[in-house]
């Protein structure tokens, strides 16, 4: 009986995760806020630092302006003492994903729009912003967004 419940729970989680991953995709790998960039093409580099400070968790900078059609390489550094992640998405997608993360705090991302880093580690995301609008980047590890770890991307 326990095995059946576990299998059913895993199947439900798998379906909800797949549905969440597809949210906002229009076709192929393009999403409401753009598409994975091509690392072989030129990109503007934007440094983003993640850290804890005075009881808050922050991204520096927490607001980024980008031109529509621009490819950006986010050079990400975790200067904190805790694991942090950055997830690029619409605000609605990130808030929904945060609910899933609260249920599954050890969920790891293998998505081109997300990167999780251990303390003192670095990583990068290459992304092409194909549509104008305001988009979100957040750390969705439970409690981190609530502690201030989010920012805004404005694409004009």
UniProtKB/TrEMBL annotation:
<dbReference type="Pfam" id="PF00127">
    <property type="entry name" value="Copper-bind"/>
</dbReference>
<keyword id="KW-0614">Plasmid</keyword>
<protein>
    <submittedName>
        <fullName>Blue (Type 1) copper domain protein</fullName>
    </submittedName>
</protein>
<keyword id="KW-0186">Copper</keyword>
<dbReference type="InterPro" id="IPR008972">
    <property type="entry name" value="Cupredoxin"/>
</dbReference>
<keyword id="KW-0479">Metal-binding</keyword>
<feature type="domain" description="Blue (type 1) copper">
    <location>
        <begin position="49"/>
        <end position="156"/>
    </location>
</feature>
<feature type="signal peptide">
    <location>
        <begin position="1"/>
        <end position="21"/>
    </location>
</feature>
<keyword id="KW-0732">Signal</keyword>
<dbReference type="GO" id="GO:0009055">
    <property type="term" value="F:electron transfer activity"/>
</dbReference>
<dbReference type="InterPro" id="IPR000923">
    <property type="entry name" value="BlueCu_1"/>
</dbReference>
<dbReference type="GO" id="GO:0005507">
    <property type="term" value="F:copper ion binding"/>
</dbReference>
<dbReference type="InterPro" id="IPR050845">
    <property type="entry name" value="Cu-binding_ET"/>
</dbReference>
């Amino acid at each position: 009986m326990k095995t059946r419940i576990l299998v059913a729970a895993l199947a439900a989680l798998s379906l909800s995760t797949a549905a969440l991953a597809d949210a906002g995709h229009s076709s192929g790998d393009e999403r409401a806020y753009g598409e994975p960039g091509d690392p072989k093409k030129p990109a503007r580099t934007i440094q983003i630092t993640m850290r804890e400070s005075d009881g808050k968790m922050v991204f520096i900078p927490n607001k980024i302006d980008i031109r529509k059609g621009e490819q950006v390489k986010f050079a990400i550094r975790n200067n904190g003492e805790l694991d942090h992640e950055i997830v690029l998405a619409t605000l609605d997608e990130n808030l929904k994903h945060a609910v899933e993360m609260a249920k599954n705090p050890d969920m790891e991302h293998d998505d081109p729009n997300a990167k999780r880093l251990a303390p003192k580690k670095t990583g990068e995301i290459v992304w092409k912003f194909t549509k104008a609008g305001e988009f979100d980047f957040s750390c969705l590890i439970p409690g981190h967004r609530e502690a201030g770890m989010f920012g805004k991307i404005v694409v004009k």
